[in-house]
Amino acid sequence: MTRIMRRLWLLVVLVLLCALPAHGQSTVVSGTITDSGGQSWFSGSIQFAFRPAASNPTAQYMWNGAPFSSSSTFPQNPLSLDSTGSFSGLSIPSNTAIAPSGSQWAVTVCPAATIPNCFTQLLTITGSTQNISSQVVPPAVVVNLSVPLLGARAYTDTEIVGGQPGIQYFNVTDNTIHVCIQTGFPPCTWDSQSTNPTPFFNGQVYVGGALAPFWGGGDIGAQIMAAYASLPAWGGTINVLPPLNGACYPWTTQIGFTVLGKYVNLVGLSPPSYVGSGTSEQGMCFNWPSTANQVAMTIDWTNTFGAGTTPGGGIQNITFWNNMCATNGGCGSSAAGLSIGPVNGGAMGATFRNVKWRGWGSGLFFAANTAQLNFPLYFEAFAFQQNTIGVNSSQASEGWRFTTGTFIQNENAWTQIAGPGGLQVEFDDVHWDSNLVTGISGTCNGNWTMVGNHFENLGGATTHYVACGTTGTFMFQGGFAGDDNNTGNADYWFTANTVIGNLSIFSSGETATSVFVTNGINCMTVTNGSIPVLTGVPNGLYCSSSVNVGRVNQTNALSSAQVVVCSGGTKTVTYSPPFNSTPVVILTDYTTSGGVRPTASSNTGFTAACTGATDTFSWMAIGNPN
Asked: Which of 276, 296, 332, 571 is the most exposed, having the fewest neighbouring CB atoms within 10 Å of its CB?
């Protein structure tokens, strides 16, 4: 019995010894960040980024027996410091448990104040716990206002340099605007504007960042609506400060700019940006978590049938994201990002610049309303990404213009259901890439002008770039359409009532039953870079449908020109109806220069011989009177 007990104790000791190293794999880090001037960096942020050893900058590092990325950050987004500038409970992989040895962590701290650069300190993290309060001591905050800075923030008046009478900044300690007054200057005497706490500057209002308490501390939607209510009757500009932690703003309150005549410019004061592979974003982005059938934002400030020539406000520098969706084709949401209308006159004259809608059921929604014209509308440097429908429109209108933007990785990029009169819209230098089902689809009545557009199906997406059936006129002025698939056969690329203009096309190997399918006239100047694959479309002038013209001195219309393909080195064409006398026939071979000639001709038709068995050629018949 004694021997058995000894063996059991030995087993327990061995298990404990094996477990000891596992407890030393991570260190629980805490601390309070106070700068060299004694100011706590409350409401600031902290983040740890791995730094390889200088002697092994490109080595494969291992932690806990598994590969460890040299680009690791903890946490992924900066961690907010609390009201005392402290943090705790942050688990960081211990440098002593990472091989090869010699690595460190770059600890970056940022204050709630406005400074040119955050502070970074290299540290070795080790042990079960580590307090870094004495190891991370940034220099005192200095905010230089010799050049006025919109949205400037500081903890105290003493942190401001270069102040002049009238200069103001937001004091994050007492949550008021401080203004340098003329009395006693120099130096500045700072007056707290506590009697009028609304953060206005030169007629503009600010929300977000450290100003959230001004508006009740709610989500970014609640702050924007409070700011909208504070503006004068004619509207104004609402500036959104960058989020203090660099992450997307939580957004749960619906935004409604719907007061007639109260126009708004909603401006993000930092650009949105991708993180890592692009599956997340930071900077100026709003994240709406609900996927229910709701509209997150509405603009409907224009009078019905009015103000079409008036600059109409708009949005700049913001990504609107639905539930952090980063899946091609969307995530099944029923939510709409922005609805223009549907009660008043919409947003006539509005401009949307550097704005993205990502992951929505419908990124941009136009409801059917015959009382709205919504013209003009301008979209510049825009993006619709990973939505079920990028633009979902049931409105007939005119003067819409989309410039230098992308429709990418949506299920359907644009769905249009327009009544009589349709939509007059122009796209300049727009990319339609990797949309899964269609690019433009629906009842596309109207005129669609495509200048220098790019159509491509990266990742095996659809070649249905325009799927409008027998409706819509599309005018191409330059541009490119390509099929990146190496094998297979696409049924079509473009279907519409009429397609005209010029376009370059290319396929990596997939054939197409029809590149262009039209109900009416389809004549284009085509540069075909894949003639062996896209055999039905020659270089140069291409008409996929016959051209019907009135017959000279004849009683009815006649098909007098066509593009046809030889079969077995010959082709017979029958006129319908026949000429009264034998016409002149002009033949042009697109495949073999000079490779086609007539062998028989009459008033009812002609037969041609072709050098190549399947040469493509055009013919034109010119009839003599009677």
From this structure: 276
The answer to whether 284 and 317 have CB atoms below 8 angstroms apart is yes
Domain boundaries, the chain: 21-131, 143-192, 200-413+422-439, 452-545, 548-622
Nearest of 321, 368, 329 to residue 346 by alpha carbon: 368
pLDDT in tens, 187-235: 999 988 754 445 665 568 888 887 787 787 889 999 999 999 988 888 8
Give 11: exposed, middle or buried? Use CB within 10 Å, 0-12, 13-18, 19+.
exposed
Provide the pLDDT confidence category of residue 140 given band limits of 50, 70 and 90. very high
Measured between alpha carbons, how far is 432 from 483 in angstroms, rounded to an integer? 12
Task: Output the CA angle 462-465-469, nearest 5 degrees.
Answer: 110
Q: Residue 169 belongs to what H/E stretch?
A: strand 168-171
**Cα 198 to Cα 216, 263, 454, distances in angstroms:** 11, 19, 46
Q: Please tell me what DSSP assigns to residue 57.
A: T
Q: Which residue has the higher pLDDT, 86 or 417?
A: 86
pLDDT digits (tens, 9 = 90+) for 435-450: 999 999 998 888 899 9
CATH number for domain 21-131, candidates 3.40.50.1950, 3.40.50.2000, 2.60.120.10, 2.60.40.2190: 2.60.40.2190
With DSSP H G I counted as helix, E B as strand and the rest as coil, what are the percentages for the chain, rounded to 5? 10, 45, 45
Measured in whole angstroms, the distance separating CA 192 from the mean position of its chain's CA atoms is 41
d(CA 75, CA 323): 20
The answer to whether the CB of 102 falls within 8 A of the CB of 55 is: yes
Q: Which amino acid is present at 140?
A: A
Task: Write down the residue that tokens 């990785």 correspond to.
Answer: 409
pLDDT in tens, 571-611: 999 887 788 888 889 899 988 888 999 999 998 899 999 99
Pick the closest to residue 354 from 267, 261, 227 (CA basis): 267
The CATH code for residues 548-622 is 2.60.40.2080
Q: Is the pLDDT at 35 greater than 50, yes or no? A: yes
Is the predicted pLDDT of residue 380 greater than 90, yes or no? yes
Going by C-alpha positions, the residue among 47, 215, 28 that lies closest to residue 126 is 28
pLDDT > 90: percent of the chain: 54
Check: CB of residue 244 under 8 Å from CB of residue 209.
Answer: yes
Instruction: Judge whether 21-131 and 548-622 match in fold.
Output: yes
Task: Choose among 237, 238, 235: nearest CA to 258.
Answer: 235
Tens of pLDDT, residues 16-30:
444 334 445 999 999
Coil vs helix vs strand at 239:
strand
Residues 6+ apart with CB under 8 A from 575: 558, 559, 583, 603, 604, 605, 621
Average confidence score pLDDT of the chain: 85
The amino acid occupying position 405 is G
Calpha distance 50→349 (Å, rounded): 49
Q: What would the mean pLDDT of 162-168 be, rounded to a whole number? A: 86
